[in-house]
Amino acid sequence: MVRRREKLPEVGWLVIGTVDKVFEYGAYLKLDEYNNMPAFLPWSELSSKWVRNIRDIVKEGQKVVVKVIRVDRRKGHVDVSLKRVSEGERRRKILEWKRAQKADKILEIVAKKIGKTIDDAYSEVGWKLEDVYGEIYKGFEEATIKGAEVLRKAGVPNEWIEPLLNELKKHIEVKKLKIQYVLSVRSLSGDGVHRVKKLLCELYPKEEDKEVKVRIYTAGPPRYILEVVSTNFKKAEALTNSLLKRAERLAKKLNVEFAYQRVK
Q1: What domains sit in the chain, N to C, each tagged with a CATH number?
Q2: How far apart are alpha carbons 229 and 177 in whole angstroms?
Q3: 11 in the Ramachandran plot: left (φ > 0), alpha (ψ -120 to 50) or beta?
Q4: pTM flag (> 0.85)
């Protein structure tokens, strides 16, 4: 079950609720992220339009995104609103909820494999990743891309690291961006082959980056393909532009004809 560290939500927060009971004057929900804590949805907070029948809006068992409008910490009472949630907020919260569900499932599986409880999983892994990345699933995505160092930096104990990384490979597919340029590289000098080779070597980054892979292959001289693949769009674009500018400068020094055109 997805959980939050806070026992009670704050006013203004978006929460996921399951409709429990519906009455003429409103509905009671169970807040999924807060151990099924009850919350009241007043009739006046159902819709900005006039409602003839409350069941036209909510039904028992339905999951809804609502906004917290009142919290009584002494009594543990929470009031929520449906009409104050915009469509954009609803979509974002549902996406966040689905990601939290996936993260919870991964934690549960790994905890069982190493003989830990789900409470252990959240205290030793989940909350630590949330502190660093703002979201447990985001931490998992980073670990899938960059490896064990992401988990270590967040303070995850060693006993979790290898089992987690193995499980993440089964559940998380990281989307990758591919940038491709067709290069035209030509030299009429006696040592032209050497000059072309030197120029192409300059198109590789000076330092290895796990997030970005650079590949150059021939399409039949004088045409070559520069391919940059990354999980980070901005970094891939910036690196590609930097490599091409560096190659342009070197081409002038080497007296090599150099041109390029983006194809993807």
Answers
A1: 14-84 (2.40.50.140), 88-171 (1.10.150.190), 177-262 (3.30.70.1130)
A2: 6
A3: beta
A4: no
